[in-house]
Specification:
The complex is a heterodimer of chains A (419) and B (180). Chain A is an all-alpha fold and 419 residues long. Chain A has a single domain, classed as Cytochrome Bc1 Complex, Chain C. Chain A has 16 helices and 2 strands. Chain A has a two-stranded antiparallel sheet with strand order 1-2. Chain B has 180 residues and is of the alpha+beta class. Chain B has 2 domains: 35 residues; 129 residues, Rieske Iron-sulfur Protein. Chain B starts with 10 loop residues before the first helix and ends in a 6-residue tail after the last strand. The chains are: A mainly alpha (419), B alpha+beta (180). At the A-B interface, helix 7, helix 8 and helix 12 of A face loops of B.
């Protein structure tokens, strides 16, 4: 995070502080003078969006916690009281509930961008793995948050997800009892989920600091995948990246606000407005949209244990990408075959998401099996082999050469680069 | 620190290793209450005591649901047709092969008592649905027959049997089985 700063404290107080805690120069070198590739496109603004969304979730979450009661007899009513009685409670809850969806939307785009431009490759492996850890923490946090309103979907989501562990031979049932704190999902479960749902966002914030630290050590990737070589290849983080990020956060917020104010329950399930009933499972039970692809993989496999293993492997495998991908060329813009296989991979994930929302019968199961096969086939067969057989396009000598050759000499944004 | 230069382990080395070992045991011991607090406490376990159910009011063909240890228990008053279907099924070819006689109490073939939790991921199957005169799980499509055996779908096992015993011809106690 250091080495770029031209910061010289002017006032006597800042000079005094700099000798004792050089925080001003740290901020200056990390967020002002930090050199960022001049050809970054708008897909690179999602890191900023994610940081913004984490802030939104923590602020609204802390406020909601002031009005929420983590007790099975009162939880549902306290959420209804937030919706009806608490001043602006409806707004805060709708921001928080839809915020989870938009947080995941942003993280999926962020991951897809990393895969398209090969951002996980040497020397960014640790940066990438920290990202996978952040995603896993988000999954756990989102799940626990969904349980808190204690509606029908909350209760049965908690039951189904905790029961995933019962597939483990021998230790499965003791683990599930331990997670529940009883013979079934109940008050101890709700209480501990509330505690952890409050804790985990701050763990996420901590790992985000490591993620940004790692990013600032190795530098940002860019649409060409060619490392910056001279000062001509980079521009200063402020104003170029900060203003660009702020502009796109604004656009993102327009969509976010549309959901909050016009269709706040579009991504929710109406069954979750029915209080939890341990005696009856809703007729059609699906997780939140952001878990659907993995849910489809779970259901595609007829064996319980194998299904749970596939579900876990589908997420964990992302951490191995830096070693599964054998190609030295980063950006898909210069890898024609990889680009096609990758876009099909994205389509397969979206297809799995659709299948996850449907009843698991007949043709849907077969389709889910084919897409699951492609999901793992892409990661464990296509990726390693492509690097050995693919003929890549010639890379530009430098970022500035690629920008100038494509005929837009000024500014930090690259022309539409096929993505 | 001159002791570090000698090749032979010194008494100081022994003290370092012994201290670290005792410290590790202490840290592990300190972890155990943190892990243990998440398990069911004594009051939760006590609340899981046996429950008695009167079968007199259950009509032929009716399935009722009672709770024992927060788990739904299905009690199915099977009609002769249900019993015949359950007994005639080719049980050896089933995924979790069990004859109907192993799933009911001898002399009480009319009564099927099972834990109403799908063995796949814990949903509650719906009674009188599916193609086998038994249950259908709405979560992932598992189907159970009139003996509570898995016949179709992703669930690996038959609906589990709770421990229970007949106190009289029309009264059972769930949670206790003195014959077993």
């Amino acid at each position: 995070m250091s080495g770029y700063s031209t910061y010289k404290p002017q006032s006597p107080f800042m000079q005094w502080l700099e000798r004792r805690l050089p925080i001003a120069s740290l901020i200056h070198s990390s967020f002002i003078a930090y050199p960022t590739p001049r050809n970054l496109n708008y897909w690179w603004t999602f890191g900023g969006i994610l940081t913004f969304m984490l802030g939104v979730q923590i602020v609204t979450g802390v406020v909601l916690a002031m009005h929420y009661t983590p007790q099975v007899d009162f939880a549902f009513d306290s959420v209804e009281s937030i919706m009806r009685d608490v001043n602006y409670g409806w707004l805060l809850r709708y921001i928080h509930a839809n915020g989870a969806s938009f947080f995941f939307l942003a993280v999926y785009i962020h991951i897809a961008r990393g895969m398209y431009y090969g951002s996980y490759k040497e020397p960014r492996e640790v940066l990438w793995i920290l990202g996978v850890i952040l995603y896993l923490l988000m999954v756990v946090t989102g799940f626990m948050g969904y349980v808190l309103p204690w509606g029908q979907m909350s209760f049965w989501a908690a039951t189904v997800i905790t029961n995933l562990f019962s597939a483990l031979p021998g230790i499965g049932d003791p683990i599930v009892t331990w997670l529940w704190g009883g013979y079934a999902v109940g008050n101890p479960t709700l209480n501990r989920f509330y505690s952890l749902h409050y804790l985990l966002p701050f763990i996420i914030a901590g790992v985000v600091v490591l993620h940004i630290w790692a990013l600032h050590v190795v530098g940002q990737n860019n649409p060409t995948g060619v490392e910056p070589k001279t000062e001509k290849d980079t521009v200063a983080f402020t104003p170029y990246a900060t203003v660009k990020d702020a502009f796109f956060i604004g656009l993102f917020c327009i969509l976010f606000a549309y959901f909050i104010f016009y269709i706040p329950n579009y991504l929710q399930h109406s069954d979750n407005y029915i209080p939890a009933n341990p005696g009856q499972t809703p007729t059609h039970i699906v997780p939140e949209w952001y878990y659907l692809p993995f849910y489809a993989i779970l259901r595609a496999i007829p064996n319980k244990l194998a299904g749970v293993i596939a579900l876990g492997l589908a997420i964990i495998s992302l951490a191995f990408l830096p070693w599964l991908d054998t190609s030295r060329v980063r950006s898909a813009n210069y890898r024609p075959a990889y680009r096609v296989f990758l876009l099909v991979f994205f389509a397969a994930v979206i297809g799995l998401g659709y299948l996850g929302s449907q009843e698991p019968t007949g043709g849907y199961v077969i389709a889910a099996r084919i897409l699951t096969l492609y999901y793992f086939g892409f990661l464990y067969v296509i990726l390693p082999l492509l690097g050995l057989f693919e003929t890549t396009k010639p890379l530009p000598n430098s970022i500035s050469e690629s920008v100038l050759r494509e005929g837009s000499p000024a500014g930090a944004s690259a022309p539409a680069s096929g993505a | 620190m001159t002791a570090a230069a000698t090749a032979e382990p010194t008494r100081r080395d022994f003290l370092y290793i012994a201290t670290a070992a005792v410290g590790s045991v202490g840290a592990a011991a300190a972890l155990s209450p943190l892990v243990s607090q998440m398990n069911p406490d004594a009051s939760t376990i006590a609340a899981g005591a046996p429950v008695d159910v009167d079968l007199g009011s259950i009509q032929p063909g009716q399935i009722i649901q009672v709770f024992w240890r927060s788990k739904p228990i299905f009690i199915f008053n099977r009609t002769p047709k249900d019993i015949k279907l359950a007994q005639d099924a080719d049980w050896q070819s089933l995924r979790d092969p069990q004859p109907d006689s192993a799933r009911v109490k001898q002399g009480h073939e009319q009564w099927l008592v099972v834990i109403g939790i799908c063995t796949h991921l814990g949903c509650i199957p719906l009674p009188h649905q599916g193609g086998f005169d038994g249950w259908f799980c709405p979560c992932h499509g598992s189907q159970y027959d009139s003996s509570g055996r898995i016949r179709q779908g992703p669930a690996p096992l038959n609906l589990q049997l709770p421990p229970y015993e007949f106190l009289s011809a029309s009264r059972i106690r769930i949670g206790e089985n003195s014959q077993a």
